[in-house]
């Protein structure tokens, strides 16, 4: 499905949707815990619903209420009755692969859509094999579908790369506390997206789990731990809020984003430092959980390493269209292994708007563009690219056609409604 996005002037208030990352973690940890947990204000989007269904398949009882989830955990799990389909969710694929090994017997088969079946899994599989788990890629190529034999995690020592996805480490951290013996995880190379690991460690602590990390290079996890029930309020999502920030800077008069939590670790909270560096007009009210921005000014260029916050790549790439003289983004080679090769697609599509763009091995260079022109943009099914392209289109001189409306259900189902509430002019929905 495509939409026609017109140049717009945005103003007003909008609430950031609940965090996708924290919803994933809360559902999985509640499912492994003893007792009944309550997850308040979860994100119910395609990715998180995939995690809910996967945990139900492994034996947890999850009841969707009006604004919360009631989860009766099953620490012993069960063998799924059918194949687990994670849809488009890489987080679900990684977390559930490790979790499935804790089923007492039988086999779990985990797969997803075309994008998921092209995303790397071998580093996680190799680590699990080292810890006594029988698992493999069904096609023997390190890609999903994945087959995991139940029987538990023995523990021991495992090595894993840190430069592809922090989700591999998070998956091990969440499941190895239930191993039969102590686990030592050694990470090779640079660890990317470290705030996501911080979020995992924080959530494990809330549910009674323990893991000791040494500068993100080693993790020691005591064995035979029991997670306990907990009630948890899902914070607003800085990943989605950063996209709303791009709209405010590119097409806004005065926009306030509400429902933000500045106390829990979130990778994309890095956007606040970036706003200062590019000399954006903004104000943060931490007690109220708000950020207010005014757009329309020429921003300052600069160079940014987004290795710990790769989801900011689409956001900063479109903001760069109005930053002088240019913005250089580095450290995001792992963004090539997301839903799409985000670096390549951003370079290709932003050129259609009239921008000068250079593709780097691990990033992108986007130069200031005096006048953006109308065009057709294709995000190739990537939800974050679709939303970022909509922001760029609102700063153009003519309407733009953008494909892939259906992808927003992955992380931000109310996206169109929310930006329309700010005055966005969009046809086709």
Number of domains: 2
Write down how many β-strands occur, each being a DSSP E stretch of 2 or more residues.
Answer: 24
* Helix content class: 25-40%
By DSSP (H or I, 4+ residues per run), the number of helices equals 12
Any low-confidence stretches, pLDDT <50, length ≥5? none
Largest sheet: spatial strand order: 22-23-1-24
Distance between the termini: 9 Å
How would you describe this structure to a colleague?
This protein is α/β, with parallel strands linked by helices and 429 residues long. It folds into two domains: 2-17 and 237-427, Enolpyruvate transferase domain (UDP-n-acetylglucosamine1-carboxyvinyl-transferase, Chain), CATH 3.65.10.10; 20-221, UDP-n-acetylglucosamine1-carboxyvinyl-transferase, Chain (Alpha-beta prism), CATH 3.65.10.10. 30% of the residues lie in helices and 25% in strands. It is built from twelve helices and 24 strands. It has helices at 20-32, 46-57, 90-100, 122-130, 166-175, 194-206, 238-251, 271-277, 312-319, 342-352, 383-394, 415-421; strands at residues 2-5, 10-15, 36-40, 61-64, 68-72, 84-85, 107-111, 135-137, 146-149, 156-161, 183-188, 212-214, 218-221, 231-233, 252-258, 281-285, 290-294, 299-305, 323-330, 357-360, 363-367, 376-377, 400-403, 426-427. The strands form six sheets. A four-stranded mixed sheet has the order 22-23-1-24. Strand 20 (357-360) and strand 21 (363-367) form a beta hairpin. It is globular. The protein starts with a strand and ends with a strand. The model has no long low-confidence stretch (mean pLDDT 96).
């Amino acid at each position: 499905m495509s939409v026609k996005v017109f140049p717009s002037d945005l103003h007003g208030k909008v609430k950031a949707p609940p965090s996708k990352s924290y919803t994933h973690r809360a559902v999985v940890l509640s499912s492994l815990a003893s007792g009944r947990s309550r997850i308040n204000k979860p994100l119910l989007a395609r990715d998180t619903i995939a995690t809910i269904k996967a945990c139900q398949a492994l034996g947890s009882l999850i009841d969707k209420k009006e604004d919360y989830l009631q989860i009766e955990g099953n620490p012993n799990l069960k063998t799924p009755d059918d194949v687990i389909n994670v849809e488009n969710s890489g987080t679900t694929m990684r977390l559930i692969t490790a979790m499935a090994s804790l089923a007492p017997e039988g086999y779990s088969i985990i797969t997803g859509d075309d994008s998921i079946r092209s995303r790397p899994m071998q580093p996680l599989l190799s680590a699990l094999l080292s810890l006594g788990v029988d698992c493999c890629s069904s096609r023997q190529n390190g890609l999903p579908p994945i087959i995991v034999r139940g029987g538990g995690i023995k523990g021991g020592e495992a090595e894993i790369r840190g430069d592809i996805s922090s989700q591999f480490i998070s998956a091990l951290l969440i499941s190895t506390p239930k191993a039969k013996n102590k686990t030592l995880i050694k990470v090779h190379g640079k660890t990317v997206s470290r705030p996501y690991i911080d979020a995992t460690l924080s959530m494990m602590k809330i549910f009674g789990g323990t893991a000791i990390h040494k500068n993100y290079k080693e993790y020691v996890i005591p064995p035979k731990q029991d997670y306990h029930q907990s009630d948890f309020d899902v914070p607003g999502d800085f990943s989605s809020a950063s996209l709303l920030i791009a709209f405010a800077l590119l097409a806004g008069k005065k926009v306030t984003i509400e429902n933000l939590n500045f106390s829990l670790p979130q990778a994309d909270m890095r956007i606040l430092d970036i706003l200062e560096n590019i000399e954006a007009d903004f104000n943060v009210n931490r007690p109220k959980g708000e950020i207010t921005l005014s757009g329309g000014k020429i921003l300052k260029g600069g160079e940014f390493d987004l290795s710990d916050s790769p989801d900011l790549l689409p956001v900063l790439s479109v903001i760069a269209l109005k930053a002088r003289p240019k913005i250089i983004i580095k450290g995001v080679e792992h963004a090539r292994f997301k839903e799409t090769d985000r670096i390549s697609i951003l370079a290709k599509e932003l050129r259609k708007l009239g921008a000068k763009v250079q593709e780097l091995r691990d990033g992108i260079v986007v130069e200031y563009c005096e006048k953006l022109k109308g065009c057709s943009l294709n995000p190739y099914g990537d939800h974050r690219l679709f939303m970022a392209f909509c922001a760029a289109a609102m700063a153009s001189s003519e309407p733009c056609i953008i494909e892939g409306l259906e992808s927003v259900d992955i992380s931000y189902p109310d996206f169109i409604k929310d930006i329309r509430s700010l005055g966005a002019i969009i046809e086709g929905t």
